Structure prediction request, 296 residues.
Amino acid sequence: MKHLIDIESLTTDEINQICAKALDFEKGIRKTNHQNANVINMFFENSTRTRLSFEMAENKINCNKFNFSIDTSSINKGEDIFDTINNLSAIGMNAIVMRHWDNDLIKELSKKRYFQEISFVNAGSGTSAHPTQALLDYYTIKKHFLDVSKKTITIVGDIAHSRVAKSDIALLKKFNMRIKCLAPEYFAGEKIEGVEYYTDLKEAFSDTDIIMALRIQKERIQEHIDFDDYIKNYQITKENLPYAAFLMHPGPINKNIELREDVLETQNARTILNQAKNGVYIRMAVLDTVLISQGL
Ligand code: CP
Prediction:
């Protein structure tokens, strides 16, 4: 695996190998030293969890870590992204962790030739893909449920604008999970084959093992949305949350919009910070894999 661009390009074996490696890193039974590798983080959109857990992962695998500042870079003098990366490659960067608002840019960049070989790792591309989030979500689910193929997940909220939902669905479908999406029409997005769509919360929650709440992405919404109507019909509360459901959220959370704040005090919600923790091990495993592909 030279690049990680999307989940669709991974086989189930590759996904399981990344998770197995992440588990070894988590247990401390696998150590690695990439002291000859140079990894640069380029974040064109805001991030807390993804950026900092990549940085933590880079420290833990002992590579040389660099952070690209868009504001102080020559991109602000008009240099285009290809020339920027070609120069980073010439300087000696071996891998780029990139978050960008464009859905397809990282895929296009990964197909080009540079001064030296360079790997791309997608840290979130527009509304299209967030593969490391999907891997950490699967890793979190797999650690809790032994046989995921017999489990049902309900993804709730702004599915239309969510790269997390798209990557999660692509991954969980590969492992034959039953996938439900619960959203009003304006948040349902393009229907995906093999996914069940619901508009009624009670009906969707009547038979589910996992609930994945999504953030309402106000910054990507152009049309008028009636948030009071959304809250009334779709907000997750202590009252409507099934007793035994495993509650997940990729973060950041809009408290009292997609879920009522007191839900975060429940046992069900303990998973959410474990998702953030597991992100470090998954990102260690992904970086280790792409750097090994370059012999580093
Ligand atoms: N889940 C996620 O991508 O969070 P950040 O935007 O904080 O990285």
Notes: The beta strands are 38-43, 64-68, 95-100, 119-125, 152-156, 178-182, 196-198, 210-213, 246-248. Residues 17 and 60 are 19 Å apart (CA to CA). The two ends are 13 Å apart (CA to CA). The longest strand covers residues 119-125.
